[in-house]
């Protein structure tokens, strides 16, 4: 039954770690063992009381009182507290004994009670040891990916120092690893996909790229078979900030789509367009050869999707008729001719103006701004600590002023 409950909780997303499965089972085992040990401890004492033993722990703390009848040699137990109070006291003794705390307020007073106490301690030590070991394993597993990531960063820094790489390049490498960690939390996406069978790889690719591919105006009326085939030949790459994705004069291999992050299209030194998720560039290159006359640069960490023109042509020639292909080509060329309107739709030109004077010190990446933020953090930390202390001091002063007798005592 416990395994069935674990499976149900795992499917509902309550238990996401194998250590949590063991933890709640050990918790249940501890609760059940505490119940049996507490009830057994009370039963042992009650049996001794009915046999005439005047020293039992419930009688010592006032749970019951024993009356004897000398003529018949019989003993009667009178409960001074309710059954629930007696159960709570027994349960309390069981747990403080099983976790080897033992405050000393409830102690065995007879040999049978002492024997039961020893058995309970052995059971408690066994379960507590398993619980502590499982907790250690749980914490270790939860932090294992982070520890591995930090070790990878340390090795990267050692390598960059050994090769004497520039600090700017080292910073970009570290930033890329941190971006990958924030995105995947240490998971190796390529290894994960390579281990899947071909059918599952196809389904994952369809789920990841299908919405992005269907956002192309030339493919908005495409059927599922065509979208699935195009998703299989897609190429996706990750770029760091300020990486040049496409330079002026380079031949365009196909349509460029943004899956995550932000790109900028530069015409000289002017930002002509900012591209974000589902934005596209040079989709006419799917039908006609094109040479880039703009510079496409990554503005943030971004994932860029490339639909190769050669693979695109092979797929549509195999699955579409000539009329449909002609319609897609006309749509792409029409959008290319209306690039000015597209710029108005997706963002107007913005001149890159270098910051001068005091404004450059207020930039978030400036050294002055970082030092200023550190000073603000130190000031906030001081007030967070000082304000409660001042309140306590004020309350204490008023307390002793209003209660002069306590101050004298």
Give the class from helix and strand content and strand pairing: alpha+beta
Cα separation of the termini = 62 Å
| Uncertain runs | 344-354, 398-409
- Please provide the count of β strands: 11
Helical content, roughly? 55-70%
List the helices and strands and how they pair.
Layout: H1 2-11, H2 18-50, H3 57-60, E1 64-69, E2 74-79, H4 83-98, H5 111-163, H6 167-184, H7 189-194, H8 198-214, H9 224-232, E3 235-239, E4 244-246, E5 254-260, E6 263-267, E7 270-275, E8 280-281, E9 295-298, E10 302-308, H10 309-319, H11 322-337, H12 339-346, E11 350-351, H13 367-402, H14 404-408
Antiparallel strand pairs: 1-2, 3-10, 4-9, 5-8, 5-10, 6-7, 6-9, 7-11
Brief rundown of the structure:
The chain has 409 residues and is an alpha+beta fold. The protein has helices at 2-11, 18-50, 57-60, 83-98, 111-163, 167-184, 189-194, 198-214, 224-232, 309-319, 322-337, 339-346, 367-402, 404-408, and strands spanning 64-69, 74-79, 235-239, 244-246, 254-260, 263-267, 270-275, 280-281, 295-298, 302-308, 350-351. Mean pLDDT is 80; it is low at 344-354 and 398-409.
Could you please describe the fold and organization of this structure?
- There is one protein chain.
- With 409 residues, the chain is α+β, with helices and mostly antiparallel strands.
- The chain has 14 helices and 11 strands.
- It has helices at 2-11, 18-50, 57-60, 83-98, 111-163, 167-184, 189-194, 198-214, 224-232, 309-319, 322-337, 339-346, 367-402, 404-408; strands at residues 64-69, 74-79, 235-239, 244-246, 254-260, 263-267, 270-275, 280-281, 295-298, 302-308, 350-351.
- It has a 5-stranded antiparallel β-sheet, with no helix packed on it. A 4-stranded antiparallel β-sheet has the order 3-10-5-8.
- β6 and β7 (270-275) form a beta hairpin.
- Mean pLDDT is 80; it is low at 344-354 and 398-409.
